[in-house]
Structure formats: C-alpha cells, structure tokens
Amino acid sequence: MDASSTHMRWIFSDQELHDIRAQTNTRVRSDKALTEDEALTVQEEQDMLLYYAHQVGKICDNLNRKRRDMPPELKATALTFFRRFFIYESLMRMDQADFFVLMFTCVFVACKAEEWNVFAIPQKGVPVIPVKQFLEFPDLYNSGSLGTACRDLLKVDEPVSKVEEAEVKLLAGNKFHMLIHHPFKAMIGWIRYLLKQDSTFVERDVRKKVEERAKQLATQAILTDLIFLHPPSRIALGALKLAFDEHNTPIDRFIEEYFREQNCTPEQSQKAKLAIGAITEVLGVEVKDLKLQDLQDSKRGKFLDRLKSIWKKNRPKKSKKGKKRSASPAPTIAGESKKTKTDAE
Questions:
Q1: Is there a contact between 239 and 191 (Cβ–Cβ < 8 Å)?
Q2: Of 240, 138, 262, which Cα lies nearest the Cα of 186?
C-alpha cells in the first residue's frame, strides 16, 4: 500500500490535512481580497462542502432510481472526485454557476471512470456518454437550486463546452487520478479471510446483512476525513468490524490472528488496532443529510449568505460584445511536492 499513488498523494496525517486546508483558505482570502467578515472559516467551508457532497450523492441516487443497476463504486467515485478537488481548491474561488456545473461533472466523469453508461442502450456509433443527453436525463436533479442550475445550463449556447471545461478543472484538481480504490474490494477479501478461519462463525443471512451494512458505512466514510487519513483496506476492516458488532458477532479474535499471521510486532498490532478503533468510532456517528438551515452559525451569522455574496462577486462579467469572460482559471495544485514518487497504484 505504501507504494500506491493513493497513499502517496491522498493519505495525510491530521496535522497535514489541517495545514493544507488552512493554507488554501488563507490563499483565497488574499487572492480575492476578502475581509475577515466576508470570508468563510475553514470549518464553515467544510460544513458547506459536506452539504453539497450530499447533493452529489443525490444526483447519483436519481440516476440509479431510473436504472437500478448502477455499481456502488460509481457514487463513491463521484464523491471522492468532489472531496479531493476541494482539498486544494476553495468554494470562495468559484461562482455559483460554475460550482453547480462542477457537481454534475463529478457524476459525469465518475460514469466514465467506472465504465457505466447511463443509457441502457448506448447510441450507435457513440462510444462515450453524450454530455447533453446526460444533463437531459429524466430527474437527474429535479428540485431546488441544483435543478434550476441544470435547466439553466441546458439553455446556454454551449452546455457541452461548459461541462468539458469543468471536466478539465476537475481532473487537474484530482491530479488526473481517475482510478479510485474503494474499500469495497478489500471488504470481499476480508470476508473470505474470516470465512476461511471459521466458516460457521456467522449465519448466511446475517452475513448478507452485515455486508450490506458495511457497504453503507464504507460509502459514509467518504463523507468524512477517513478517506484522507486511512487506506481503503483499513476502512473496509473498520466498517466490517462495526457492522459485525452491531449484529452481536465480534471479529476481534480473527483480527488478532491476522496480525499474528503477518508477523506484526506488538507495537505494529497496537497501532493498527488503535486506527481501526478510530475508524469505527467515526463511522458509529451517522453523517446526517444536512439541511441548509443546519448550516447557520449563530456566532458568525448566516455564512451561507456570505458565501452567496462571494459567489456573486466572482460571477464573470460580460464584455462589451456581450460575451462572458472565463469565471476562474484552472485550479493550481498547491502542495504538489509533498508526494511525488510514482503514480502506480
């Protein structure tokens, strides 16, 4: 795992993650000349991103509602693209229209990355998903400001170019890593290991319920900082442990046996167990689907209103010929020098 690009580029310590976000926040305040009263704090921005991450998930759910064969990895990939992008980029650097386009683009690119065509029967001679048809997909997002943004996007002269431009920015912000490793495959491996140790320790119907619950927890982990602090295999084990515990079937003895088989030192075993405990603790608290009214901070006022004010300032102005100038340049990837070995997964 230590040689993978996931570990080298996307796994951080708590302090590293905090410092990167603080630097991103400070940089955009300076670039946009935002005062203390205007700008969002790091925590306020994270709260807003959590809310909008839920909306990205709902776009995926709407796709699945029509087709019902969407792989679970697709939703996880879309959410990961979104969350990775905003490690080195800020909401305060964008305008509202471009931000909403980016959200749809996360799902669009995830469809391509997971090789899943949203259309049951792809058009003849069209090997990839047409952008315009993707946006016109029934109930892609049919309510609220995102639904309005989707309909408005289809009214502009070149909706395809808007998404294509956002796709380049999204990929740059993700350092062009389209292959996302999720906990789901590792989860299958852990299940096989447990059954190999004792095929009778859990009944088949309970095992199925545990697997479904663990998948839910693994997807929930993407909405937390766990995906930036722990590798997918460890998140998979933490999700399974919590799911088994909820069904009164502890697997601690199997975990201990695994450490012995790997010839782990007592210190290594203790460190791994502490990490697994931290994962189960975080996953044990449900990540609620936030409402906008939940994001109001009584101490600093309505920071949603401040974000809308920033978005309004960032809105591209029309030139004399009536054409809009580009809203913002492609994101610069700060901190790139942190991990620069190989890109091999």
A1: no
A2: 240
Backbone angles phi, psi at 318, to 5 degrees: -80, 140
State how far the Cα of 214 lies from the Cα of 239, in Å rounded to an integer.
Answer: 5
Residues 323-334 pLDDT 10s: 444 444 444 434
Q: Tell whether 71 and 102 lie within a shared domain.
A: yes
The helix or strand, by DSSP H or E, that contains position 138, with its residue range, turns out to be none
Coil, helix or strand for 297?
strand
Asked if residue 74 is part of any domain, the answer here is: yes
Residue 247's domain comprises 183-283
| Predicted TM-score (pTM) of this structure | 0.82
Same domain, 165 and 243: no
First to last CA, the chain: 8
**pLDDT tens per residue across span 229-258:** 999 999 999 999 999 999 999 899 999 999
Contact 211, 264 (CB under 8 A): no
Interior/surface letters 265-295, b for 16+ CB within 10 angstroms, e for the rest = eeeebeebeebbeebbebbeeebeebeeeeb
34 touches 41 (CB < 8 A): no
Buried-exposed string 90-106: b where 16+ CB fall within 10 A, e elsewhere: bbbbbbbbbbbbbbbbb
